[in-house]
Design a protein that fits this description.
Elements lengths: L1 E2 L5 H12 L6 H14 L4 E3 L11 E3 L7 E4 L2 E3 L8 E4 L8 E5 L10 E9 L7 E13 L11 E4 L15 E3 L9 E10 L9 E10 L11 E4 L15 E3 L9 E10 L9 E10 L11 E4 L3 E4 L11 E6 L14 E3 L6 E8 L11 E6 L5 E4 L1 H5 L4 E8 L10 E5 L11 E4 L2 E2 L4 E2 L5 E4 L8 E11 L2 E12 L1
Amino acid sequence: MIRHKNVSIFALVLIALCAVVFAGCPSTLQDDIETMRKKAGGDGAVNNDEGNNNGGLPVLNQDPAAGDFDISGAVHTYNGSVKTVVITPKAGKSVGSITVFYNGSIMLPMAVGTYTVTFNVEAADGWNEATGLVGGILTINRATGAFGSPAAINIYYTPTLTLANLFLPTGYAWNNPATGLNAGTGQLFPATYTDPSGNYETVGGNITVNVEEASGDFPEINAIDTTYTTTLTLANLSLPTGYAWNNPATSLNAGTGQLFPATYTDQSGNYEPAGGNITVNVAKAEGAVVAAPTLDSKESNSITINAVTASENGQTVEYAINTTDGVFGSNWQTGLIFSGLSANTTYYIFARAAENDNYNAGTAVSTAIKTLTQESFAISFADFENVTAVVSAATIYINGVAGKPSHATITLDDPQQYDSGSINWYFNNNPITAGVSGPCRETLTVSPTNFSGIGLYSVTVEAKIDGKLYSKIVTFGIEK
């Protein structure tokens, strides 16, 4: 509502009459009327207060609007103090005194809730009075609640006892009041607390309940069957409802008919715990899987392998040999050397985790290895790493002498372990091209054809692993 004070009726009438006949007035008269309107201040009521009447012409005041003011502080959190909005005029707007109302009252709000804000502005120089301007909504939110420390509740068991039967202090309520109770002390049950004032958020917590019980017995249960693991304890064995191990951290080994003490608490919670023993049968676990054996060295009548890394479960590794893959019989050994073998024959070397107290023997894995003939020689990576500079190869016989062949081979074992294209052969510091074969250039064939004459010869073989160069001198003889 806008109120106009000290209005000159004559000035209003004069302006109105001139406006009606404005189109027919001389230009000078029109200018005079426009000048009078400008002095009047444009829109609004006419102000003819003495001392400020612009030579007797009326001045129009402006009407304040809600948008002329900045309104802040509309959201608060309850803290026991009254809350207000802050209303300030924007630049160039009415500076009249402001009265704020909350839900129609000047009483400042304190409690949680929402309040409709309106405000009145008193008249000021150049501005009319205004009432009932809309100031929005003041919101007071609930403060964070505190659960407190309610005392533990002590009660005796009854068949129908639930949380709903337990009295709680004012403001507290069980989350699940229908929860049935069993005997036990220090039981924690979730609840909520709502401050009766309504000014705080509902907060959750736990309330301690102590329920006394009657004496009980220990019903016998079936034996428990399980399989050994390195971390197996009684705690890993599931028990029927009400049973609990006395020492759940007890480690278990393979074996049958083992007795372990336990306690039974009636599932209804009505009775005191009772002690007894439970039978546990632990079967041996499946043996660990080990890597296939790898060649250390070989001759025409023997093979030596590298030791296979044993499993961390404590099983050792054992080995066997046969000329048929998958058939290893019972002749297992822990040694790494197999002797008394036939030359130029493929053997299958087996490795497996050996049986022990807690594990069965593991699945056997095999590697095929062929023994050398007298006319062939293999160089292993171990030869490269050996500090000895020279490796002695076989003696090559000229064709027809004592039934021997006219050539022999020198081969790098497991050539894929070397960098691609890094295997090279040299004679008298010159690269050898004739007689070099294999997908990795791992084999050198030597004969009187490419090494003329009877005598002792030396060649050099080089290879790289991860960029590191290895080199070895290989000697061999050609005889008649």
